[in-house]
Structures are given as structure tokens and as C-alpha cells.
Records
---
Amino acid sequence: MSHSLTPVALCRSPYKQKFAIPRQPNLVPAAIGRLELQGECNRAECLKGLEQFSHLWVLFSFHENLAQGWKPTVRPPRLGGNARIGVFASRATFRPNGLGMSVVKLHRIGQEGKQHFIEIAGLDLLDGTPIYDIKPYIPYSDALPDAEGGYAQEAPTPMPMRVLPQASEAMAAAEQAHPGFQRLAEQVLAQDPRPAYQRSADREYGVQLHDRDLRWVVTDGCNCVTDVVPL
Ligand code: SAM
């Protein structure tokens, strides 16, 4: 049986490109976004009672990757990008139905004009991601402390960040425009988003967060911010 889905919300996120989004939610608690309710779901009644929960499940589409299809096996970055495992043994974005799921923190529920929204923290979603369902996280059933994590047992070891003197003014300006920007940058870079095959000490990397191009180099295992360019 096939079944067509209509988004219930649209995600507004500081992540404007796929590069450097963490691999899972809650690795970057400083990432704050919004789920803007859409169509018939854009009403306060749909959210009644949700404020009692601290966390939510968000079910969404990996919409940027849908056109590229899927394969029965994938090579998770965790395994160095070489070993193959089954798509259903992975959280890969290239999947038969292109669906993702993330547990995020519920910050607040609000309304601006006619737009109802849920502010969330710790998301791993690209700006513009269509959301197909939102459900409360229920700790007695969803939290399983004895569960086995297979090849993804531990969160990656975080890398430190330093803002080089040449970037300190630009970082302060970004912080003023987007309070929490520096913490966001630090937590995003802590995940070492550089592609495994392109890690060289003299290379400058860049990623868009909000409306800034965050630029950095890696020196002696430390992320050194070289600039924060307004876009
Ligand atoms: N927590 C989710 C899950 O397990 O289904 C997502 C895990 S997936 C490995 C996380 C990656 O999805 C991010 O690093 C980002 O690059 C990618 N991503 C996030 N939103 C996306 C979107 N709308 N389209 C395509 N890729 C997306």
C-alpha cells in the first residue's frame, strides 16, 4: 500500500547547507531552529499539551537527497567511509523513503502573526526541511540505557576551537546579530566536519551558519577561526 504525505511543518534552521550539520541531534545543543506549522496544522489546537514534554521526535524528509535515490548498502563515515553495511543498519540520508527522525529539545511554543511554531534545540536538520510528523518523546519507553550502539557506540571526541585575533571583531559582530553564534560555531566545529579525504593542515574550510560564512583552519588538533564573513 502506498500512502502520500503532506508536510505538517517546515524547519527553519541555522544550517544553510548540508556540510557541517552534525551527524545526529543533540551533538550541537546551541543549534536552535523552528518548526513552522503548515496548512491545516497551523493552529494552536494541534500543539495543546505539547508544552508538558521536554523533548520531541521529529520525522522529516531528507529532501535535498531524494533525487539521488538509494542503494541497499552504504559506507558510514563512522567506519572510515570504506566498510559497507546495509542501509537499514545505518542512519544514512539516502534511503528508500528518504525519511529521517531526530529527538530534539523543546525550547518554547510560540506564535508570530498567524504563524504557529515550535522552537527546538539540538537539531540536525537543514534549513527548509519538510517535517512529516511531530511527537512527544516519552522517556519511560524511548530511553533505553542498556541498548547496544553497534558501530556507533560513542559520540565523536570533540575538538577545541580558538578565534584568531584577526577574526575576533567579525565573531563579535556575528554574536551580536545571532546571540549564541560563537557557541554554535564552537560546537559545530567540535564535530570536525572536514571530509575524511580532505583533511590537510594548510587548507581553509568554510561553512554557512545563519547568514555568515564561518572560516577556519585546523592547527595542532585545534579549530582556529580565521574569519566570519557576512553574506
Ligand atoms: N537524526 C536523523 C536520523 O537518524 O534519521 C538524521 C541523521 S543524518 C546521518 C544527519 C545528516 O543529514 C546531517 O549531517 C545532514 O547532512 C543531513 N541532512 C539534514 N537535513 C537534510 C535534508 N533536509 N536533506 C538532506 N540531508 C539532510
Note: The chain is about 10% helix and 30% strand.
---
Amino acid sequence: MDILLLNGPNLNMLGKREPDKYGQQTLEQIVEALQSDAAALSVSLSHFQSNAEHALIDRIHDAMGNTDAIIFNPGAFTHTSIALRDALLSVSIPFIEVHLSNIHAREPFRQHSYFSDIAQGVIAGLGAQGYHLALTALHQSHT
Ligand code: DQA
């Protein structure tokens, strides 16, 4: 099984960025732990992070035909990006939306997502564990 882990803007700042909301772990540490979980499940996991909307769109397009599922934390694009929503609809790859923080318990502008109604599932508020839960769920639904 091939899974793409996609992380949007400012997630490269994890560890330094508002650790009370997003935790102490860096993105590198999170991805490393996830890679080892994936290997144990015989899942091939690719990772891509970008602060640029177009780069994320291009990476989603490139996933067509070679990726079974996507784990996506769109960062602030969650609340703004119809273009990323359309990219996911274009490739018809199932995805799980993950947020480290519980966006529903935060500012009103974070409570709407352009992705949740088209996602296979949504995980929010469980920190980095959310990525692991998404990986496990996708693996189980594929076997
Ligand atoms: C986030 C929540 C978003 O509202 C925010 O803009 C982020 C991170 C999360 O993981 O909790 O960048 O997606």
C-alpha cells in the first residue's frame, strides 16, 4: 500500500511554533516515527510539506495512479482553499484530514474546513498521534 503524507503551511515550524497548541515534536521527528510505523505495516509512506498552495496541488496531481490514500494536514489552507479541495476531488484518492489541535475548540474562523465533507475521516485534537491513527485506519481499511 502506498500512502502520501501531506503537510501544509507552517507545519515545518512544528516544535518551535506555539508548542502549547501543536506540541514539542518537530515535523522531522513526527515523520520519522510515522515511517517506522509504516514500515512495520509494510506500507510505503512518502512525505511532502510545503508552504505553497500550488506545490501542494501539484503534489496531489502527481499522486494520481500511484497512491492509495493521503493523510493530509492542510494547515491554514483548511479554512481557505477551494483549489486544494478541487485537487483532491480531481484525483479521487481517499484521504484522512488530520489536525494536531482541536480546530472546533478554537477561533470561529478555524471551525470550517473545506475538506471534512469529502474526507474519509477527520482526526483533530490528538496531537501527533492523529497521524498514527490515520495510518492505522487507512491500513486496516485497505486489507
Ligand atoms: C492545524 C490547524 C489550523 O487551523 C492551523 O492553521 C494550522 C495547524 C492543526 O494541525 O491543528 O496550521 O491544521
Note: DSSP finds five helices and five strands in the chain.
---
Amino acid sequence: MGKVTGFLEIERQEARYQPASDRIRHFREFTLPLSEGEVAKQAARCMDCGIPFCHGPQGCPVHNQIPDWNDLVYSDDWQEASRNLHSTNNFPEFTGRICPAPCEEACTLNLENVPVAIKTIEQAIADKAWSNGWVVPEPPDEKTGKSVAIIGSGPAGLAAAQQLARAGHDVHVYEREPKAGGLLRYGIPDFKMEKSHIDRRVVQMEGEGVQFRYGVNVGKDVQFAELVDGYDAVLFAGGSEDPRDPKLPGQELQGVHNAMPFLVQQNRRVGFENAIPETPVEAGGKHVVVIGGGDTASDCVGTSFRQGAISVTQLDIRPVPPKIEDKLMTWPYWPTKFRTSSSQAEGADREFSAVTLGIEGKNGKVVGVKCARGDAKRQPIPGTEFILKADLVFIALGFQGPVKEGLVEQSGVALDKRGNVLADEQNYVTSNPKVFAAGDMRRGQSLVVWAIREGRQAAQAIDVFLTGASTLPR
Ligand code: FAD
């Protein structure tokens, strides 16, 4: 701990944003980083408390050694801070940008509502490491002669691939899409995380021996049996892609869409990919209503504003968070993980306790969304109905596990009660002893940081399966 009184003297400061009126004119990242000196001051706020909840079970899923790298940043040893950070997290520039930072919620200083700005510091360390050329391929000294097929190149598949390649195995990543990244590339918009961050990691991983096989849908283009026979182990990291269907009256009307195709189209457009439909979903000049309160919904809000929507209203079934001294008690101050995203701050109207009753239409097209206020059990309260004008509606209500058709059905692996691939968090092995599972495909829809953790831990379990022991960290 560098500065004993730092937390008493220095105010919390996070990275700033471009004003909303500027940032909605483009799709690029809009965070304005703090200077190195400012970041070092923020690191000095860390108390290195005796019980650092930030990296315990309630805090960081990858157990980043946060007090240690805060101290290193404060002491101006950024390269060692980067080494420390990379020892627990393969991709800190991803999480430094888009993690909801459960570490900050768990920070002891959050008792006073002013946690250490851990996420801002993490991004600063990772960005400095890249710009100073400290992030380089780390190929293994020796090869094991064992091979692993990884299906899916989202954060879980990428983290597992990097760990397994560094352990000396031959790693082939099969990806259905033309590029790597999973939801990092095709779900999450560039304004939250530009795709160049993924591209340079792919280059690093290729330098470590990982081979990427793009445009291959396993279960369709390649049979599961071929992979399971051809490799010593297989990792399923295919994500959780089956959208929840609310079965609303009027859902079939023109202008009502699932969120994902809209986000994927815009990401492909920004990435100059050509697989965009002839009549893409466009929010420009429209009144948009987004049904849902999570990250996917927020990303529809931000994307709609950037496409030129006239208005964007977001419907959230949860009650409005409490206010203290005019400050809405959203995350990290309110312990229910209620967050206000930068997209909502771009001018969205948020309706809380809003139960969607159905979609209203005229001549086959959507014209509005019928809602009511919900009670404590989220049931509509009679007499509270209202209609919101809409000519474009996005359904963003989450996902109910992996798509079963194709890979999952073909492999015959057992599923859990929620329809995810069944595998425990210790060994990550499925009902087929050669097949492992990690990330959203095993855990259900979650977060990037959990996908990285699961990829790392599954890699360690696979290494033990292949060689009888492992020096990989968990
Ligand atoms: P995915 O990222 O889903 O990757 C799975 C990959 O497997 C995909 O590339 C897919 O094409 C490939 N694949 C699937 N089946 C096959 C097959 N048969 N053959 C070949 N390839 C296959 N989390 C955060 O922490 N912060 C956020 O801000 C955030 N925002 C989000 C926004 C949106 C719109 C969404 C949908 C999710 C968001 N999340 C966020 C959640 C996060 O993106 C996921 O938890 C994470 O990406 C899961 O990683 P994964 O590797 O398990 O799966």
C-alpha cells in the first residue's frame, strides 16, 4: 500500500465520456482516459484493506490481484502491474472497457459509496501495456503432442485457447463467423469496445500457435464425430444464443424484431463485413421501444440513437431504484446490480415497473406498445395501462441456453435443468469424457469476465486430462 491516507484525501474519479451529443454521431469508443498521473492518484485510494473483497468470491471472478496492481501503479511500475494483471486475466483491455466491475461493488470503500475506480485503472494498465509493446506472444518452450479443438471464439474460447497453447498443446479454434470474438465482436457495439482490441489479441495468439478455422459451423459443415475422433479433447464454448420468447400478442407485426439481428447487422456494417441483409433493420427517423433491462437492451438503445432514432424508450420490469439526495441509487451504490449504461444517459426514456402487455398494430405494422405498471410480483396492476408510440420494437429479454439444433443435438451431451450443457465448475467435463464446456454455453448467459474465468479454468482441467497434471493457474 503506497499512500496510507490516499482514500481519505483523494476523491474518486472515473474515466470521462465525450458528451452524449458528440458521441451519438459515431460508433467509436468515447471514453476519455484519465492521465497517467490521475490514474496513479486513483490507485492510491486503494486501502489494501485486510479483507480485500474486491478479488474474493463476491468481487472479481478471475481474482485479479487488485490491491497489488493498484500499489504498482501508484509506485509507477506499470510494467509489473501489467504482468500481475495478465497473470489472472488474459484480456484486461476487454474487461477494463466492458466489465460491470463487480470488484467495485465489493470494494470496502463502497460502504461510503466511493469505491476505488478499479475498472478505469485496469483499462489504463492494459492500454499502456499494448502501447509500450509489453504484450507479445508467449509460445511454449515444449510441445506436448496433444491436440484440442475449441468450438467458439468468444471470450471463453479465446481464453481457453491461449492457456492451452501456452501449455504446449496444438489448439484449433472452430468459429462459424468470419472473424473471432463471439459476442464481443458481433453483439457488443464498437462504441463500448472497438474490434481492433480483438484483432491484435488474435495476432498474439497466432504467434503462440493457435490456429483459427473461420466460417466452420460445427454440427453442420463439420460433424461432431470428426472432431471428437480427430482431437485428444474438445471444448464447447459456443455461447448461449437461443433468445427468450415472450410470446406477446402482436409480436408478429412488421417492425418487431429480436435484438440480436439488429446489433449484429450494425457490427458487421462498422466492421465492413458484407453479410448484411438487403433490407436491414434501421432505427433512423423512428420511435423505438426496447423491451428489456439488460446489456442487450442498452446496446439497442445506444445503436438506435447512433442510427438517428427520433425517440428511444426502454421498458424495464424492475422498479425504479431509490434516490438519495437526488442521486438515483444505481450500481455500484445500490446492491441489486442496477446499472445505468452510457446509452441510457444518451437520452432514453426509461419506464420502470413496466409490464409489456402486447404490441399494437395497424395495417400489419407496429404502431405502439401496450404496457401496465407491475406490482411487487411483476404482475400488471389493473387500471394502470398505457400505450407508447412505436414504429420499431426490439425484444431484448435475454437468452435461454445454447441452440440445440446442430452441435448440441449431434454430440448427445447431457444438459442441465436450464438447458445449458451440463458440466461442473471443477472439471468442466461433460457427460462425454473427451468433451468439456465453458462460458455461456455451460453457465447460461453471463458476463465477459465469467467467460474468461471459465475458459481459463476449463483449460487447466483439459491440461490435467491430457497430461495428468497442470501448471496452468485457475
Ligand atoms: P460467445 O461470446 O457467445 O461466443 C460463442 C461463439 O461460438 C460465437 O462466436 C459463435 O459464433 C460460436 N459458435 C457457436 N456455435 C458454433 C458452432 N456450432 N460452430 C462454430 N462456432 C460456433 N458482458 C459483459 O461483461 N459486459 C457487457 O457490456 C456485455 N454486453 C453484452 C451485450 C450484448 C448485446 C450481449 C448479447 C451480451 C453482452 N454481454 C456483456 C455478455 C457477454 O458478451 C457474454 O457473456 C460472453 O460473450 C460469453 O462468452 P462465450 O465465449 O461463452 O460465448
Note: Residues 5-132 form a domain with the Fumarate Reductase Iron-sulfur Protein; Chain B, domain 2 fold (CATH 1.10.1060.10).
---
Amino acid sequence: MKLWGGRFNKEEDLLMKTFDNSLPLGKRYYEEDIIGSIAHAQMLGEAGILTTQESRKIVSGLESILKELQSGELVIDEEAFEDIHSFTELTLTQRIGELGKKLHTARSRNDQVAVDTKLYCRKRGLHFIELLEQLIAALQEKGAANPVLMPGYTHLQRAQVVTFQYHLGAYVEMFKRDRARVENALAIMDENPLGAGALAGTTHPIDREITTDYLHFRTPSANFMDAVSDRDYIIELLSACSLIAVHLSRLSEELILWCSQEFKFITIDDAYATGSSMMPQKKNPDAAELVRGHAGLAIGSLVSMLTIMKGLPLTYNKDMQLDKEAFISAFDRTDQTLTIMQRMLVTLKVHPEKMQQAMKDGFLNATDLADYLVKKGVAFRDAHDIVGCIVLYCEEKQCSIEELSLETFQQYSEHIDEDIFEYLEYESSLNQGNKREIRGGS
Ligand code: ARG
């Protein structure tokens, strides 16, 4: 059951057969292979390379295979065929007879696999855009529903007051850029490789505009050799997936910290946690940990693909068949992790009182006090120093800045007046300067 053999005297070694078999992963894009083949057959008819009747018969044969695969009536036998292309053509010939052998006129598996992979990447990429939009909506809604103040951190040390909504808003921006990266990758890849043949086109009078329209590409690709060698678009999507993974992983890390006993800012819903086999009290944030772990594997796929491609001479080389291992797993991971994160966000509970408490314990109004002094005419560097001394004093006394008396404040600076107490309220800094934007969420 193969597409070649005439020039061989001997069967393949059995191990070689499995070694070369790309069907277990290639079957994931059977729809694209059949739709690409339908477009090709249609074109062969319209261009007069096959008769209209022949073209119709091939198209309807392919359509029936597609339908039966979609319904589950037909199941692909992974061992019987070398790849998805062999499956499609040989199954067609089994069904419609000798005419099936004409399908591959003016085509190579090299332009066929290129078009299949592009169509598949486009389908998965469009779905990532939808998932990113759902995740962005979940972040925005969670933030809007919880208008609470919290500490913002640098070096994981409490730094300045922000709002929970604003913190989540930072992720909204990251995922918006990720969406733009996926859209950009889809825009750049929008060229039809079909018609490039093995590497040097074909002597048949094909019409690439027909398959381009049929498959909704912007234009036929310009150079045949590039068309069959190009896997840039996979790498670009994998790069977008890697950044999505990195952003999801950072968010996961924060959720893991926030749900710990040490923070207790949030509770993750039971549906996204697991327990311990030994310690009855444990509730572990496994979903977030897995999302964080998957990022390592997603980045691995990008590196694999870059490394596979970097030394290949033009044009097609069999190394490229291994691309599926990199992109299919990375795409599945992206789908799963975006979905799990969205669900985890929708269901998690926020504990405003814990956030407020952490805010009060961290001298988060120290920078505001320095700004106050500057507004009273003190140079910022001097103000910074004065407040540093006040913080040291508070640490010794184990109190917060706003608990000091006016007399104590005035021992540090004569510029401090009664109005300082209102100024030091945690909310009040967010009513001043461009900090007002923090209140606005994202
Ligand atoms: N089996 C390959 C794959 O699944 C496609 C065949 C490409 N061409 C070739 N000459 N072997 O990616």
C-alpha cells in the first residue's frame, strides 16, 4: 500500500517501515489533506488536465472519504499506509478504481504536505485567537468583579499599592500582544504552496489561482523551491505559542503563590486542585503547576523545530517530516493550557481582607511620603533618605508609618504637617498623578 516502488528490487526493512511512518501524527490533519486534494482535483478539471467528469468523480470520492472519517465510520489504519497522503490517494483508488490514480497528476507530496500543514496551522491559529479572547475576557471580568487594593511587588517584596484589577490588567496586555502575534503569523503564512510540485513546478498547464481561491489563500507562493522548503510559519506559530506559555506560566506562578498559606489572597476552586495521598489536609494547585510545567515543553518544541531546520539544504528533506512531533504537541498544549487557565480564573475566589492586610504590613505608602515631602519643597533624594530613616524607626517600633504621631514625623522633617495623615491613606495615592490610571483597571 504505497505510492512508489517501481525502481526498487527489495522491500523496506520492517524497522525502516515504522521508522519512516508518519501516519500516527499525520492523520491529525486528514481534513486538510482531503480538502487540499479536492481543491487540486477541481483545478485539474477546470484547467482541462482531467475531464470534468473525471474531476467530479474524484471530488465526490474524496468527499465521501472525508464524511466517513468525520463520522467515525471509516478509521485510518496507521500501519497500512506510509503517510496521510498515501492513505488519501490509495483509499480513493480502492473506492473509485483506476481513476483514483490520476489524482496526483501535477502534484508532489512535497507541495501537498506543505499545503496541508499550512491549512492545519491556520485552523489551529484561528482557534488560539478565540481562546485568547476568552482568557482576556475572564481576566477583565475577574478584575472588575473584585475592585480591591493589594500590594504590588518587585523582587517579590511588597512595593507599592495597586489594585487586583490592575495586576490582572498587566496579563490582559500580554495576551493581547500574543493574539497580535498569532494574527501576524497567520497573515505572513497566507500564501498557497500547492502547484510547486516537488520543487520545480510541473509541465502541466495548472492554474494556481483556482486552488488559491478554493483554499482561501491571499496569493500563490512566489518561488516553488521556497514553497516546499518553508516551515517558517510553523516556527512563528510555535514562537507565539511559547510566549503564550511563558505568560501563562508567570500567571500560574502567581496563582500558586497567592493560594499558599503564606499569602492566602485567593482560593483555587476544588475542580482545579488535587489532594495528597498521605497528608489529609492538603489541597494542591495542580492545574496551575501543570500549566507552568507545560511551558517548558512548549519552549522545547520551538527549539526542536528551529534546530531541525537550521542545517537543511533546499528543498525538501525527510527531516522535515518530524515537524509534526513538535507542532502538534505544542498546539495541543496551547489549547489545553489556555482553556484550563480561563476556567481556573473564572472559578477562583478572591480574599480582599488578606490583600488589604498585606498592604498595611509592607510600608507601601513610603514612596508616597517621599512624594509628599517633594511637594513641600524637599529634593527627592533628601526626601528618600528621610523616609528611609522613618521606615527604620517604624521597624524598630513595629508599627506602620501612618501610626506615627505628628511630633515624631516632625523630628524627621519640619515640612510635615497635619495633612500628612490623609495623604498616607492607602487609597489616596491612587487619586493622584498618573496613578489614577491604576483605578481605571486596564
Ligand atoms: N511523509 C511526509 C510527511 O508526512 C510527506 C512526504 C514528503 N515527500 C517525500 N518525498 N517523502 O510529512
Note: The chain has 18 helices and six strands.
